[in-house]
Design a protein that fits this description.
The protein has a six-stranded mixed beta sheet, sandwiched between helices. By secondary structure, it is of the alpha+beta class. It starts with 5 loop residues before the first helix and ends in a 9-residue tail after the last strand. Helix content is 28%, strand content 37%.
Length: 147
């Protein structure tokens, strides 16, 4: 991610999430040495992005969104796979994330990529209020990602 991508990422946040990150919050990730954000571009358009933070050997995926016009085309899978490979190169050994319990398409993708449920956070999300499932992938296996 570069500064020129921030406005498009913020627009995707607003389009995809009920509690979106602000432009300023996204831009602040550019200066955070713990953060790694990747952007998927198609014809000069930001069609998706993924963001993470790492502490020691553990990484947390904070954001993943794909523009509606680009969904079901493998963009999310490519973003997660690329993030996992890059984090592993940087020394991370695991990737954890929270996903809405009702988000069946995301849960299916994460299961396909080898994430396993390790917990549940009641009332984690607002608007609407919902539990999150905690999923984890050991990155020592990230060479198994297809992309």
């Amino acid at each position: 991610m570069e500064q020129r991508h921030v406005a498009a990422i913020a627009a995707l946040e607003r389009a995809c999430f009920s509690d979106p990150w602000t432009d300023a919050a996204i831009a602040s990730e550019l200066d955070n040495p713990l953060s790694l954000w990747l952007v998927a571009i198609s014809d000069d358009t930001v069609c998706g992005y993924i963001g993470s933070q790492t502490c020691g050997e553990e990484s947390d995926m904070m954001n993943l969104a794909v523009a509606p016009a680009y969904r079901r085309q493998g963009v999310a899978e490519q973003l997660v796979s690329a993030l996992a490979r890059e984090l592993r190169k940087q020394g991370s050994r695991s990737l954890t994330l929270e996903v809405r319990e009702s988000n069946a398409p995301a849960r299916e993708l994460y299961q396909k990529l080898g994430f396993v449920q390790t917990g549940r956070r009641p009332n984690y999300y607002f608007h609407p209020q919902e539990a999150a499932l905690i999923l984890r992938k050991e990155l020592v296996e990230c060479e198994n990602f297809s992309h």
